[in-house]
């Protein structure tokens, strides 16, 4: 995958306020929300598996875990229309 999809600053500015506070604390540092979003967008745009995510996104388990949590909390239902309206070609689920 040569050109990995990235969120524009404008897209990120619309999504960021919807996300829960970034967890800080003990243990491993959390993967940054923006990097997580870019990993999710990559999976949705390309159809690659979660396990095939490039290492730069962090552990694939962290990305899929956050995606599933955001879906369960109903957050993804608010994020998806923003991405779709911003010409990020993705499907409704991964």
Describe, in plain words, how this protein is organized in 3D.
With 94 residues, the protein is mainly α. Helices cover 47% and strands 0% of the residues. The chain contains 4 helices and no strands. Helix 2 (33-46) crosses helix 3. The longest helix has 14 residues, at 33-46. The radius of gyration is 13 Å and the shape is globular. The two termini are 18 Å apart.
| Terminal Cα span | 18 Å
Strand proportion: under 5%
Calculate Rg over CA atoms: 13 Å
Unreliable sequence segments: none
Return the string of H and E elements. Answer: HHHH
Average predicted local confidence, pLDDT = 84
Helix content: 40-55%
Number of distinct beta strands? 0
Summed up, the helix count is 4
How many strands, what sense, and barrel or not for the largest sheet? none
What best-fitting shape do the alpha-carbon axes yield?
Answer: globular
Classification by helices and strands: mainly alpha
Question: How would you summarize this macromolecular structure in one to three sentences?
Answer:
47% of the residues lie in helices and 0% in strands. The protein has 94 residues and is mainly alpha-helical. The longest helix has 14 residues, at 33-46.
Could you outline the blueprint of secondary structure elements for this entry?
Blueprint: H1 9-15, H2 33-46, H3 60-72, H4 76-85
For this entry, give a set of tags.
mainly alpha; globular; 47% helix; 94 residues
């Amino acid at each position: 995958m040569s050109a990995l999809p990235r969120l524009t600053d404008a897209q990120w500015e619309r999504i960021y306020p919807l996300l829960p506070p970034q967890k800080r604390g003990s243990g491993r540092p959390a993967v940054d929300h923006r990097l997580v979003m870019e990993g999710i967008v990559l999976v949705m745009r390309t159809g690659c598996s979660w396990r095939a995510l490039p290492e730069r996104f962090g552990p694939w388990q962290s990305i899929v875990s956050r995606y599933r949590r955001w879906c369960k909390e109903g957050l993804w239902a608010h994020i998806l229309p923003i991405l779709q309206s911003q010409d990020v070609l993705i499907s409704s689920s991964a």
